[in-house]
Amino acid sequence: METLHSANIITHVITGTIGLLLGVIAIISLKGGKLHVKSGRWFLRFLTVVCITGIFGIFVFERNTFLILITLLAAYQGFSGYRVLQTKSNQFYWIDLIAIILTASSCAYFLYYFQSIGMIWSPIVIYSTVGWLSVVIIYDLFKYFIPKEKYKRLWLKEHIVKMIAAWSALFSAFTGTVFEEYQPHSQYIPSVIANVLMIYFLIKFSRKK
Questions:
Q1: 124, 188 in Cβ contact below 8 A?
Q2: Spatial distance between the Cα atoms of 118 and 113, rounded to a whole number of angstroms
Q3: Which range, of 123-127, 173-177, 203-207, averages the lowest pLDDT?
Q4: Are 35 and 23 within 8 A, CB to CB?
Q5: From CA 162, how far away is CA 133, in angstroms rounded?
Q6: Residue 88: band (very low, low, confident or very high) from pLDDT cuts 50, 70, 90
């Protein structure tokens, strides 16, 4: 089991680092261009491996259970951001509702778990992450009531926000682990950077027809 655990950690770290770099390429490249599309697809693939190895580390090897929150955040944002790009509409699909239910129930378990063991991470990291994930889930539940014509002007912005948020989760996990002695700053500063990027691109694309 120790050998498998070590292999799982190595896979998790390598794919996470590559995914983080691919996310940077997707962010700085021309939106809609070949490089953006290709790097975005590979980012999602590596993100999937990161989430799977993270889940194995939590439930199979019983390590760092509180990291389930970052895994949830990255996985759901990546999945939902990809689904937005796929459908480009707010039409109801069961797969999206199932993802919401699984994520919300897992988040509830995390909160229960944290109450039972006490605060391991800084409250600013916990509450901001849970708060953001809750806001996204609530939005995804109520977006079906947005008029379809109006949503046609929203789906691109939603895709931008969710994909940057998924990248931000990887970024926070990376810096929080590598620069552990500087927590919680090493964990929330990447989120601040991601928020600035979100605002920049939202303003930029809001000015375009």
A1: yes
A2: 8
A3: 123-127
A4: no
A5: 10
A6: very high
Whether a cis peptide bond, with omega within 30° of 0, leads into 184 is: yes
pLDDT at position 155, please?
A: 93
Contact 110, 72 (CB under 8 A): yes
C-alpha 92 chain-centroid distance: 22
What does the alpha-carbon distance between residue 139 and residue 46 come to, in Å, rounded to a whole number?
Answer: 26
Q: How far apart are CA 165 and CA 195, in angstroms?
A: 8
Summarize the confidence of residues 33-57 as an average pLDDT.
Answer: 91
- Give residue 192's identity as a one-letter amino acid code: V
Report how far residue 53's alpha carbon sits from residue 13's, in angstroms, rounded to the nearest whole number: 9
At 124, is the pLDDT very low, low, confident or very high (cuts 50, 70, 90)? confident
Longest Cα separation, the chain: 55
Integer angstrom CA distances of residue 163 from 57, 183, 195, 201: 24, 24, 12, 12
User: How far, rounded to the nearest angstrom, does the alpha carbon of residue 60 sit from its chain's CA centroid?
Assistant: 22
Give the pLDDT mean for 38-65: 83
One-letter amino acid at 125 equals: V
| CA–CA dist 164, 46 (Å, integer) | 15
Q: 35-53 burial, b if ≥16 CB within 10 A, otherwise e?
A: ebeebbebbbebbbbbbbb
Nearest alpha carbon to residue 130 among 176, 68, 54: 68
